[in-house]
Amino acid sequence: MTVAIERRFEAARAVVDDAARLALSMRPPPGGPVGTLKSAQDWLTEADGAVEAFISRRMAALFPDDGFQGEEEGATRSGSLRWVVDPIDGTSNFARGRNRWCVSLGLLEDDHPVAGIVCAPALGETYTGLIGKGAFLNGKPIKASPVNDTRSAMIEMGWSNRVPKPIFMEKIGAILDSGAMPRSGGSGALALTDVACGRLDAYIEIVINLWDVAGALPILAESGAKVSPFLRDGGLTGGATILAVAPGIADALAKAVQIPLI
């Protein structure tokens, strides 16, 4: 890990903290959803654009030669080091004044994830990961779950309107047949960090985007979790499948849901 990347990581942590406070200040009160539907169950709020623009400006000022890609505006700058942001992951929760959402920022070096920060301000939690330096939740080291039997596992599966219902039901059926307990929380980034810290034993999503996972990938790598080859299988340029899973059930679950691991 180079000094330049470590310096960026430390600076980015402060930027994400500020961005998370901005997002929290813009969260609607509890109630019906506040925002605009991009497609079925895919919400856009004023905070999405404001938080992304805030992070983009700050990172450009700090590291003008770095690339930048956001969920809302796409790739606006290029570079061998590239920041990838999801300004509000879990927007459907955010739009209803719920707590399970986060600001996610990842750093890629030549398309390889090297650092990530996932901050859930309404939960008071920040996950961080730097390749070779460990994974942390609020500054304390985390590791993937020690579970080694799917019959005692808790597994989350994300839903997307881009996935045909039969495929979704097939994977849910495989999870149930394995004896695991299914869950769904509405934030892919937080589900992935839950795998990294052992709150979940696996997370599956059939179609998910780079900005949803970029911040979590280094955290997962440093936690000891096993992860499917999301980037290799198209995640750099479009939606792809991800499976993140505790090592003790990795082979059994990958076989059950027919998603190969690296």
TrEMBL record:
Its cofactor is Mg(2+). One of its GO terms (biological process) is signal transduction. One of its GO terms (molecular function) is metal ion binding. It holds the Pfam family Inositol_P. It comes from the Bacteria. The keyword Metal-binding applies. Keywords: Hydrolase, Magnesium, Metal-binding. Signal peptide: none annotated. Mg(2+) binds at residues 71, 86, 88-89, 212. The keyword Magnesium applies. PANTHER family: INOSITOL MONOPHOSPHATASE (PTHR20854), INOSITOL-1-MONOPHOSPHATASE-RELATED (PTHR20854:SF4). Belongs to the inositol monophosphatase superfamily. This is Inositol monophosphatase.
